[in-house]
Amino acid sequence: MAAIYGRTSAGHARGQGLTTSIAYAVLVAAAALVLYPFIVLFLGSLKTEPGFIANPLGIPAKPTLDNYVYAWQSAHIPQFTVNSVIVSVATVGLTLALASTAAFGLSRFRFRGGRSIYLAFVLLLTIPVQIYIIPLYVVVVRLRLADNFLGLILPYTAGSLPLAVFLFKTAFDGLPGELLDAARMDGCSNLAAYWRIVLPLSRPIIATVTVFTFVQAWNEFFLALIFIHNPALQTLPLGLQAFFVNQYQTQFPQLFATLLMSIGPIVVVYLGLQRQFVAGLTAGAVKG
Amino acid sequence: MERPALKPPGAGPRSKLREWFYIVEPYCWIAPACVILATFTYVPILLESGLSFFSANGVNAARFIGPANYEEALHNPDFWDALAHNGWYAAVTVVAKLALALVLALLLNLPLRGRAVLRSVFFLPVVLSFVAIGIIWTLIYNYDYGVLNALLSSLGFAFLKQDWLGSPDTAFGAVMLVDVWKWTGFHLVIYLAGLQSIPSELYEAAAIDGAGRWTRFRHVTLPLLRPYTAINLLLACLGAFSVFDLVYVMTQGGPFKATNVVMIEVYLQAFQFNRLGYAAAMSVLLLLLVTVISVVVLRVFGSQPAKT
């Protein structure tokens, strides 16, 4: 819309100033609504229990870090975080490996059934995993993967594959064919072409797939709730929920600290890689 | 993709082997992904359709009972109530999210300073789990120590204090608000991408033709945003009909089933009462509904926008 303002008269310029002010007011108010819960959480996490009950909204009179010590030691947040890192990183690695090879196969060769197989991947884009969770549970139990990280990693990977294969294949289809033909002339095998030419050219897609696969695995709750019963194997969302259910009503400052410590890692990574996160998490929607 | 692999050059003594490899190679590339996909998506989906015709509790042998599970679901007021809750959830959250996202995206598309920061703030809840967000808001809504009631008191509105999640009148709205709070930033970013794809010449041409702000929005912006509205609508609807995490963490479907949605009902039947067949039948019905909704949304909104 900037272009419109470029050719407007002085009267419009005044209007533009007003528009800008209103826009700022609305946007800042909305941003405040998004941030306010985190601010309250942070301030509350520095209060003692009586301090919080006396003054739930304001600045803590005597800030204390005791609640964080509690979250670290008693709420097992480090353990849950390590579990989540293992599950998420493995899911990302497996998804990248499987999706990129499958997309390479589907993009590089024409073969019987290729189209139908691609369709089978894409068809699942709009089916939420919740809907087939019961038989998935049956499968996971039969494969003896319940209470096992693989019982999460493999279904998470399967859940990420449709979008990952779609994005990789779209990217591979867009690579100039001469590149690979030239490579073959030089005696380069398909495997070498995939590893030395196609993958290095697909870094943006690798980043995108990494982000959405990681965030999905990191935040997933329903499967973990049903497949994991051993407290030592709980991922962050599961551990957090179990911890929350077992808490007494008034220990709010401890809960605040626990919550902040549990969302800390993903928030820090998000703040460092905002561009990649926004692109990665909306890629399916924008490109689909 | 018109790039068939060239036949291997030369027909030496090993050409038979090469011929064979030439046929098999593509399948080697796709096999690992296909195995994982089939095992953890297609096999369960097929199993589910089968399971829905059985009486199964996961312990004793399953017993074939024909369409009885479907009949039970379709005659059970709990199922219909849950479905109606999903319908309301979809109607309210989808409209709220898309309207808010569109307004904020239009504003963020203005040449303002600090838009990148604002966008990052709006997107922050998107990267967090429904569990963390559900707990945060459960604490905010708490009657005795929650921030919301404390705010109302301190602003002089103490009479508005509520047991937000404990009362059947307010619980569902309170949960829906959190969903809107979490996802608006996501839909905003998609709308923003749509707005930035509209060539500015279109607006200039419209302005030269004397089109006012509203006319330009109505006849240029909205039609060209249509594909983006379609995908926003689709994703928001899918989320609304398969919602589980948020409701489970905040209310577990209560109080008095006021927030009972289909996935909560499925979870209770399958994993609390061990009625796997009945829960599978409800899941299949939900799957059919979600498929119909996806097709309708894509048919109605997915068509190319009229050229303006």
- Range of helix content of chain B: 55-70%
CATH H-level homologous superfamily name of the largest domain in chain A? MetI-like
Helix proportion range of chain A: over 70%
Broad structural category of chain B: mainly alpha
Instruction: From the alpha carbons, calculate the radius of gyration of chain B and give it in angstroms.
Output: 26 Å
Overall SS class of chain A? mainly alpha
Strand order of the largest sheet of chain B: 1-2
Oligomeric form of this entry?
A: heterodimer
User: How far is it from the N-terminal to the C-terminal residue of chain A, by CA?
Assistant: 26 Å
CATH class of the domain at 92-199 and 224-301 in chain B: Mainly Alpha
Task: Tell me, rounded to a whole number, the average pLDDT of chain A.
Answer: 88
Number of helices of chain A: 15
| Number of H- or I-type helical stretches of chain B | 13
Order of helices and strands of chain B: HEEHHHHHHHHHHHH
**Could you name the CATH class of the largest domain in chain A?**
Mainly Alpha
Evaluate the radius of gyration of chain A.
25 Å
By DSSP, the count of extended strands of chain B is: 2
Structural features, described:
The complex is a heterodimer of chains A (288) and B (308). In chain A, 77% of the residues lie in helices and 0% in strands. Chain A has 288 residues and is an all-alpha fold. In chain A, helix 5 (77-108) runs parallel beside helix 8. The longest helix of chain A is centred in the N-terminal third of the chain and has 36 residues, at 10-45. With 308 residues, chain B is mainly α. Chain B has a domain at 92-199 and 224-301: Orthogonal Bundle (MetI-like fold). Chain B has helices at 15-51, 68-75, 77-108, 115-123, 130-141, 147-154, 171-196, 200-208, 213-224, 226-241, 245-250, 262-272, 276-301; strands at 54-55, 63-64. In chain B, a hairpin with a 7-residue loop joins strand 1 and strand 2. In chain B, helix 2 (68-75) packs across helix 13 (276-301) and helix 5 (130-141) crosses helix 7. The radius of gyration of chain B is 26 Å and the shape is globular. Classes of the chains: A mainly alpha (288), B mainly alpha (308). At the A-B interface, helix 1, helix 2, helix 5, helix 6 and helix 7 of A face helix 1, helix 3, helix 4, helix 5 and helix 6 of B.
